[in-house]
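Suppose you are handed a protein chain with no further information: no name, no annotation, nothing but its sequence. What can you learn? This example shows the usual starting point.
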Amino acid sequence: MILDLKLVGGRVITMDPRVPEAGAIGVWRGRIVGLDDVADLPAVRTVDLGGATVLPGFIDAHTHLAWAGRARRTIDVSGCVRAEQVLDALRAAPGDGWIEGSGYDRRALDRPLTAADLDTVSAERPIYVQDLSGHACLVNSLVLRRLPSVVSDGWLTETDSAAAHALVLPYSVDEIAGDLHHAARQALSEGITLCAEAGVGAGLLASSPLEVAAYQRANLPIRVQLMVSANVLHRVDAHVDDGVARAIDLGLRTGFGGDRLSIGALKIWTDGGMMARTAALTEPYEGTDNTGELLDERLAILDGHAAGWQLAVHAIGDRAVDFALDTIAEAQALDPRPDARHRIEHCGLVRPDQLQRIADLGVIPVVQPTFLWAYGDDYAKIMGERRAPWMYRGRSFLDHGIPIAGSSDRPVADGAPLRAIEFMVERQSSGGLRIGPGEELTVEQAIAAYTLGGAFACGLEHDLGSVTPGKLADFVVLDDDPRTAPRISAIRVLDTIVGGQSSEV
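A reasonable first move is to predict its three-dimensional structure. Written in structure tokens, the prediction is:
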């Protein structure tokens, strides 16, 4: 046998407990065919790793490639600390159509902006500035006049924000494909080989009703699994025995596609976010009477489950987590599916009494550790001393037998898995605040969240997540071993290999 690729001279951390480490990997036709036992086989290409560390390719189980790529075509106001800086940046927008901004964070400004402020930029051009969280936006008076049912000073959240976003759409398939390539190359440079795109077709972050066509056209250098927005479900006249009331055309659902592009879970939103103060809580945000916004998507959960979908239920606040668990339990009671593998996206604030319910229902938390690294000081303040330790848990999930899948929610936060892994181990924010002492994981457990855990959450554990013969040949090559490196986030990605093909990052 002549291998297509042979990697030698490295330290391979396989994440497979049967063979934890190896020094060589053999690849043929895009899959792993052996480890140290292939060292003497001939190969078309042999690469000496020179002592570098190899891990399974990282999996980002919840990200937004199209949104992240699109941000480069908008006015970036993420670095602004004064309201006038935002306005000056928007005034520099070229062209004569929509003025689009991104990265708006009114928490960082000397004062929040209003529609009247944006009117000083332009009263003739519609202006849409997306909040950093994706759950809110700022618009000028011209846009408000196009939303007659909305009463606002220009700051819109959740459904009102989605209505404003819909006015901007659609982007062209070619534009979206370009955005995807830009974001995919960034992910590849960080060692990511699979991204789960968290919501296509409609909803807060949609790009076009033809959005999936852009993924087909783009031929990306990474693997992508698409979560379909529940907004595109519609009534179907299926046979009564099928028990399907709503679906997408042709009955497509979780599992359709190949190893490069496939359909994953059905994405359902039940609340907002902590940044926008719209995550649904059982008790108010500290110092306020605000408990966020709960979206009643019970029918989407019941119909999606009945139609055979894996569900990815966005629930950040503990009240939304209660709603998600209650409704998933109801769906399972009506139509039992032992390995439905439903997910809660974010699972950001989890009370102690909710942990066992998550375990009992077999629900997978898909967490974003970097949120607490980037915004943890703010989140801890708005949750208060009692609730702050409940945010984006680690150890408590594992202690209850709950698998964890790691993700970024890019571009809301830094997408680099090594940064997130470091936080899961240290639980320390960028401001030096310790958040959730006792929730720390070992390095190996944190790596597992971005390999084995991500693969399991995406239903791809037979093909991805470990360096195991028979699985797809997806690897990340690092210049140091995360288990012994002084700073995990400082480790350099030397190469990312997808299906045995080097990216030469």
